[in-house]
C-alpha cells in the first residue's frame, strides 16, 4: 500500500469533481432536498400531546438511505466513465497497485460523502428540529458510514457494468431490495423466515438497526457497537473485492 499514490489519486478525483458542478450538486444538495420533501410530507400531521413526530423516525432513517443511494449512483457511474474513457487503462500501466487505485477513489468519494452527510444532518437538526435520544455526532457518524457504504458498493458494481445504463440498472438489483428489507417499511422480526434471512446479509439492514438504537438510546449500546463493526467490515470487504475485480482494459 502506497499512501502517496492513494493521496495523489484522491486529489485527482476531487479535482475532476470540482469541475463537474452537476455531480457536486447531486452529492451535496440532492439528499438535503429529498430530506426537505420528507419533512413537508409530515408537516401537517396531527399528533396527541407528547407523541413523537413521524419525521423524527423516518427522517433519521432517510439520513442514511439518501446518502447511500446517491453515493452508490455517483461512484458507480464515475468509476465506469474512468474505465470506458481509458483513464484506468493508462493508470494501470504505471507502478500503481489496484488496491492503491481503489482506495484513492474511495478516499475521494468518502470526503464528498462526509460533506454530504454533514450538510444533510445539519439541515435535519437546525432547520427541521430533528429530535432523537442519541447525539448529533452519532447521527453524523452513521450518515457518513452509510454514504461510504454506498461508495464501496458502487465501486464494486461498476466492475460488472459495460455502460452507464448498465450501471444504473444495478439500482433495482442491488439497492431497491435493501430498501424493502432493511426494516424501513416492516420490522425485520415481522417478516417471514426467508425474508429475514435475506435481510441479514444486506448492509442497509444494519444501518437502519443502528439508527433505531440512536433514536432510542442516548449512549452507545452493545447492539449499536455490533452494527457499526459489521458495517465497517462490509465496507472493507467490498473495497477488497473492488480491487480484485478492477479491470485493466476498457470494456
Structure summarized in a few sentences:
It is built from eleven helices and no strands.
Q: What is the strand tally?
A: 0
Shape: globular
Helix count equals: 11
Distance between the termini: 27 Å
Can you tell me the number of structural domains? 1
- Given as residue ranges, the uncertain stretches (5+ residues, pLDDT < 50) are none
- Beta content comes to under 5%
Q: How big is the Rg?
A: 19 Å
Q: Largest sheet at a glance?
A: none
Average pLDDT confidence is: 85
Provide the helix percentage.
over 70%
Order of helices and strands: HHHHHHHHHHH
| Secondary-structure content class | mainly alpha
Core attributes:
mainly alpha; single chain; 75% helix; 251 residues; 11 helices
Task: Note down, in words, how this protein is organized.
InterPro entries: ABC-2_transporter_component (IPR051449), ABC2_TM (IPR013525), ABC2_TM_bact-type (IPR047817), ABC_2_transport (IPR000412). This is Transport permease protein. The chain crosses the membrane at residues 24-42, 58-80, 101-126, 132-156, 168-187, 223-246. One of its GO terms (molecular function) is ABC-type transporter activity. It is found in: Cell membrane. The protein has 251 residues and is mainly alpha-helical. The protein has one domain. It is 75% helix and 0% strand. It has 11 helices and no strands. The chain has helices at residues 3-18, 21-28, 30-41, 54-84, 87-91, 98-126, 136-158, 164-181, 193-200, 203-216, 222-245. Helix 4 runs antiparallel to helix 6 (98-126) and helix 7 (136-158) runs parallel beside helix 11. The protein starts with a helix and ends in a 6-residue tail after the last helix.
Amino acid at each position: 500500500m502506497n499512501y502517496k499514490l492513494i493521496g495523489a489519486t484522491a486529489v485527482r478525483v476531487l479535482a475532476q469533481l470540482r469541475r463537474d458542478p452537476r455531480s457536486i450538486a447531486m452529492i451535496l444538495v440532492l439528499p438535503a432536498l429529498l430530506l426537505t420533501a420528507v419533512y413537508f410530507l409530515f408537516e401537517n400531521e396531527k399528533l396527541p400531546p407528547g407523541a413523537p413526530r413521524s419525521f423524527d423516525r423516518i427522517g433519521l432513517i432517510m439520513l442514511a438511505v439518501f446518502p447511500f443511494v446517491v453515493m452508490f449512483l455517483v461512484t458507480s457511474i464515475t468509476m465506469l466513465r474512468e474505465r470506458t474513457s481509458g483513464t484506468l487503462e493508462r493508470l494501470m500501466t504505471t507502478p500503481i497497485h489496484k488496491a492503491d487505485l481503489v482506495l484513492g477513489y474511495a478516499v475521494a468519494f468518502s470526503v464528498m460523502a462526509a460533506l454530504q452527510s454533514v450538510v444533510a444532518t445539519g439541515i435535519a437538526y437546525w432547520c427541521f428540529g430533528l429530535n432523537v435520544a442519541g447525539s448529533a455526532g452519532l447521527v453524523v457518524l452513521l450518515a457518513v458510514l452509510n454514504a461510504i457504504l454506498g461508495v464501496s458498493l458502487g465501486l464494486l458494481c461498476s466492475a460488472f457494468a459495460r455502460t452507464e445504463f448498465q450501471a444504473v440498472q444495478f439500482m433495482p438489483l442491488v439497492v431497491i431490495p435493501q430498501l424493502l428489507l432493511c426494516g424501513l417499511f416492516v420490522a425485520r422480526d415481522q417478516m417471514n423466515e426467508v425474508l429475514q434471512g435475506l435481510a441479514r446479509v444486506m448492509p442497509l439492514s444494519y444501518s437502519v438497526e443502528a439508527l433505531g438504537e440512536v433514536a432510542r438510546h442516548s449512549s452507545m449500546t452493545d447492539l449499536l457497537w455490533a452494527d457499526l463493526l459489521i458495517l465497517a467490515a462490509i465496507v472493507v470487504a467490498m473495497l477488497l473485492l473492488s480491487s480484485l475485480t478492477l479491470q485493466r482494459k476498457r470494456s
